[in-house]
Write a structure and sequence with these properties.
heterotrimer, A mainly alpha (300), B alpha+beta (355), C alpha/beta (347), B: 355 residues, OB fold (Dihydrolipoamide Acetyltransferase, E2P), 6-stranded mixed beta sheet, 8 helices, C: alpha/beta, D-Maltodextrin-Binding Protein, domain 2, 10 strands, 19% strand, MetI-like (chain A), transmembrane (chain A)
């Protein structure tokens, strides 16, 4: 120490005071997070632990793996596959329809984007039930679309647009599109437009610049949109029940039946736990995949 | 390397009622390092973007090696550009960023490898080829952006305030490196900056822009020592202006006729000023040859390499002079009365507009 | 003397208060929980309130969403409900799980009941029919008359609808496949599923709620279907060109049971005895048309008009055409059948 010191050599240099100030600040910050942590614990962790606990007991209250063994029966395996097939299809279609919309939004002026964004968010303001019934009116055998096509002479027989997988997918894509578009749009807005100029300057045509620069950079947003859409689809109940005509046996229907029809909480819990575990694995996989994609996309 | 000649004729660009470019004409020689210097809003970046193809002007001609470029899309112009914030692709590593222009030009893999590594070597970045962009410092990013801009041997290198995001020491270091690189590669370079020091250090010629027009175009020494108007003079260095009166063929300051090197920059009508810069003032002078300026010391500010002495003149005007310690004169104190000398060869009277 | 008088007055006043309190206590407040909605409103007006009045109890209503809620009540150790109204198979399941007090068949008379209409812990209080209904604008000349016709896609082309829940649908399939309606139980599930497999391609919709089933028929989304009698009645009232038949219909029922540990179990027994008594049951045909009484003696209490008899699913004429659901069979087989059935629907 070459600094001139005016204080006595034994001066405590406020060590204790500074330390307690640091501790106080830390306490305040963790205090701010506390309500959220308590909320998460109350609405997520505790119920989940309870579910997991319930799933370990049979109807008579004895410890048993019966609830999980049941999941291997064909009806449940079939429903599990249906759920993932539907979620996958809906997510894929949402990407196909949602990506161009998000791209358009991100390229528009702030004002135009805001107006268009209202139309994207508009469906959030009506209930899923109302929207689903609206699709029924449009798609059913004597519905608007079939009537119109028949009167135009495009078709001779009404198309089977609803009460099947097609109707379910149409209805679900409509409900889920904003969930894909919004995170994607946000991530596209964050892409510096100068990067596209840089690509053009390097000699990339607009389509090359899009594929080699914009697309990989929008991947994180796309991944979170996909993950959000996919996971929400896995838990879908209302739309498949109303538009699926009983043919689309979603996992959530099985959970609802286990509770409301059979009052079998153990079975319902096992179904929920299984769904949760598989969902977590899928999310993790999607994340790994897109991480790999977004980095390798630019390699020559 | 190929060198490009650029000829701009009467380029106009307006955004609504704002004239970003108001009839700019400019000829850039092959291999020249030309700087577009001006305050923000002067049109220098717009002009660069017109050359790069990111802005389409309302009117005008842009010839590159005698070929009309004005409507050619940017990706077909074959010009390298260094952007203000580097615009490196964050999803690619250093190598891939530099390789990108070559990849688009369908260069074969071994040649890409060789040319990218050569380019990285020139900017001293070959050891970091595998790094992700996010793991680089500002100076390192700057070098990668530079390598990406020249790796495909463009006929023209455009730089948009490339050093503005760096701290002062690194900026000065990079100025010298860029200048060396230009000598080494020899390609025509158009450089945009608002930093007069940078422009003076690096350029073969400087075009000073204001309100969408080129005010003065000349070699650095001329632009600095013989500015053609008050705007250019004020933009270069720590310039102070003292109003002077026109009397017949000469100019008068404080009742004394001025001895002048050059009066061409002063128009025969309108206001006229004597341009005074701290480094041109002298502590001693000769009453027969130099111009005498008297005032009272306002304050003395220590600046490390010198003391800056501010002197207040009659009429509320102010000039400054540096005291390096090498003078015979002792450092004055605030309140002292001083007589300073401006040599005739450094005395320039200018008008408010270029004649 | 004066003090004696004062003492007497005090005693008298106290006694008065006590006796008043005693009267209030005698009027038990009986809590009955049902599924809510219009059905519960109708049930209260038609059969619960008169029975409560007769038993001298005050009626308080709650709603629940199935057996799970009942289980929570009982497991709490001190249920606040006394009586629950449930679907027949839920009553049977609850009885097996020990959620209910045994019914006192000394107090409750089962005279006039079908043997499938009551169990140790529960008794059916109202019936509904799952009937065959069809669009008259589609089947103008020749209407389907039985489940065999429903399965006959050559003679009766058109889109069908069945329920997503196998109850009643399995019975219907067996009847269509030629099983006598009076010897359905125990159900031959393999045969039923095989029969359903045959008709599956012509089932346009598997419906999952009563409202949905009515809408399908009203909109002409399907041409014929298995549907609750009460629902099809409202479709006809709305003016849709629809008819239905009680032929081969399946009679399901709602039931009452007393929660284990119910605070007013004795009053509850009296209340239930009243609900199933012929006099109270006889109110159903007129006040809840398309639902039926569970006690066949109801039709002997008084003379009903021919219209009412034609409508009521339990009139002597109509009940002969139908068969009763076996709640106990469903109690034991529901879950497995449901799995096979949902597999059949989705493949």
């Amino acid at each position: 120490m070459t600094l001139a010191m005016d204080g006595a050599p034994g001066m405590p240099l406020n060590r204790a005071m500074l330390k307690s100030a640091r501790r106080r600040e830390r306490r305040i910050f963790s205090g701010l997070a506390l309500p959220a942590l308590v909320l998460v614990a109350c609405i997520l962790l505790i119920p989940f632990a309870w579910l997991a606990w319930l799933s370990l007991f049979d109807a008579a209250g004895n410890l048993s793996a019966q609830n999980y063994a049941r999941l291997l029966r064909p009806a449940y395996v079939g429903s599990f596959l249906t759920t993932f097939k539907v979620a996958g299809l809906v997510t894929a279609l949402c990407v196909v329809f949602g990506y161009p919309v998000a791209y358009l939004l991100s390229q528009l002026s702030a004002r135009a984007a805001q107006i268009l964004l209202v139309f994207v968010i508009l469906p959030f303001w009506t209930s899923v039930l109302v929207r689903t019934y609206a699709w029924l009116v449009l798609l059913q055998r004597n519905g608007v679309i079939n009537d119109w096509l028949l009167s135009m002479g495009v078709i001779d027989e009404p198309l089977a647009l609803v009460h099947n997988l097609t109707g379910t997918i149409i209805g679900m894509v409509h409900v889920m599109l904003p969930f894909l578009i919004l995170p994607l749009y946000a991530s596209m807005k964050a892409i510096d437009p100068v990067l596209l100029r840089a690509a053009a300057n390097c000699g990339a045509s607009p389509s090359q610049a899009f594929r080699q620069v914009f697309l990989p950079l929008s991947m994180p947003g796309l991944a979170s949109g996909i993950a959000l859409t996919f996971v929400l689809c896995l838990g879908f109940y209302l739309t498949p029940a109303l538009l699926g005509g009983g043919r689309v046996a979603m996992w959530s229907t099985q959970i609802a039946d286990a509770v409301s029809k059979f009052s079998n909480w153990g079975a319902a819990s096992a179904l929920s736990v299984a769904l949760l575990v598989v969902t977590a694995v899928v999310l993790w996989g999607v994340r790994r995949l897109t991480d790999a994609l977004s980095f390798s996309a630019g390699k020559p | 390397m190929r060198s490009g000649r650029v000829n701009l004729r009467e380029v106009h660009k307006a955004y609504g009622s704002f004239r970003a470019l108001d009839g700019v004409s400019l000829d850039i020689k092959a291999g020249e390092f030309l700087t577009l210097l001006g305050p923000s809003g002067s049109g220098k970046t717009t002009l660069l973007n017109v050359i790069a193809g990111f802005e389409r002007p309302d009117l005008g001609s842009l010839l590159v090696d005698d070929v009309e470029f004005i409507t050619r899309p940017p990706h077909k112009r074959d010009l390298g550009m260094v952007f203000q914030n580097y615009a490196l692709f964050p999803h690619m590593d250093v190598f891939s960023n530099v390789a990108y222009p070559l990849k688009l030009r369908k260069v074969d893999r071994p040649s890409i490898r060789r040319r990218v590594m050569d380019a990285l070597e020139i900017v001293h970045m070959q050891h970091l080829a595998d790094r992700r962009i996010t793991a680089l410092s500002g100076g390192q990013r700057q070098r990668v952006a530079l390598a990406r801009a020249f790796v495909f041997e463009p006929r023209l290198l455009l730089m948009d305030e490339p050093l503005s995001a760096l701290d002062k020491n690194l900026r000065e270091h990079m100025q010298i490196e860029l200048k060396r690189l230009h000598r080494q590669l020899g390609m025509t370079t158009i450089y945009v900056t608002h930093d007069q020091q940078e422009a003076l250090t690096m350029s073969d010629r400087i075009a000073v822009l204001d309100k969408g027009r080129i005010i003065q175009l000349d070699v650095p020494a001329t632009v600095y020592d013989r500015p053609n108007c008050k705007f250019v003079a004020g933009f270069m260095g720590e310039t102070r202006f003292l109003p002077v009166e026109r009397r017949d063929q000469t100019y008068v300051l404080d009742g004394r006729p001025l001895r002048l090197a050059d009066t061409r920059a002063a128009s025969s009508t309108g206001e006229a000023w004597l341009m005074v810069r701290p480094e041109r003032l002298r502590w001693q002078g000769d009453a027969d040859r130099d111009n005498r300026i008297e005032g009272r010391v306002l304050d003395v500010v220590y600046r490390g390499d010198c003391n800056q002495v501010s002197v207040s003149l009659p009429g509320g005007h102010e000039v400054a002079i540096r005291h390096s310690g090498a003078e015979r004169q002792p450092l004055p104190q605030p309140g002292d009365t001083l007589a300073l000398w401006l040599p005739a060869e450094a005395s320039l009277v200018i008008g408010s507009a270029a004649p | 003397m004066a003090s004696c008088n004062r003492a007497f007055l005090t005693i008298a006043a106290t006694a008065g208060v006590l006796s008043f309190a005693g009267v209030a206590a005698a009027q038990d407040v009986l809590t009955v929980a049902g599924f809510g909605g219009n059905l519960q409103t109708d049930l209260r007006k038609t059969i619960w309130q008169p029975a409560a009045d007769a038993a001298g109890v005050e009626l308080r209503e709650e709603t629940h969403d199935g057996l799970a809620a009942v289980r929570v009540q009982v497991q709490s150790g001190s249920p606040t409900w006394d009586v629950v109204h449930l679907g027949a198979d839920e009553c049977a399941v609850g009885g097996k799980e020990g959620l209910f007090e045994p019914l006192d068949y000394g107090t409750i008379s089962t005279k006039g009941f079908d043997a499938r209409g009551y169990g140790e812990h529960w008794i059916a209080t109202n019936t509904y029919s799952v009937v065959l209904a069809w669009r008259t604008d589609v089947y103008k000349d020749k209407a389907p008359a039985s489940w065999q016709d429903f399965w006959n896609v050559e003679a009766f082309p058109g889109r069908r609808a069945l329920s997503t829940y196998p109850q009643e649908m399995m019975e219907i399939a067996l009847i269509a496949d030629g099983v006598d309606k009076d010897s359905l139980y125990p159900l031959d599930t393999e045969r039923a599923l095989a029969a359903l497999e045959k008709i599956k391609a012509n089932v346009g919709v598997w419906w999952s709620s009563g409202a949905q089933s009515a809408q399908l028929l009203k909109d002409g989304e399907v041409d014929m279907m298995a549907i609750w009698g009460s629902r099809v009645a409202s479709v006809i009232t709305d003016g849709a060109p629809v008819k239905f038949t009680y032929q081969d219909a399946i009679l399901g029922y709602g039931c009452l049971a007393i929660l284990k540990g119910a605070p007013h179990a004795a009053s509850a027994q009296k209340f239930i005895a009243g609900v199933v008594s012929p006099d109270v049951q006889a109110r159903i045909p007129e006040m809840m048309p398309y639902y039926g009484p569970t006690n066949s003696l109801a039709f002997e209490v008084k003379a009903f008009s021919p219209e009412v008899l034609a409508q009521s699913n339990m009139s002597p004429e109509n009940v002969k055409k139908q068969t009763f659901l076996d709640a106990n069979w469903w109690r034991d087989n529901n879950e497995l059948v449901r799995e096979d059935y949902s597999l059949l629907m989705s493949n």
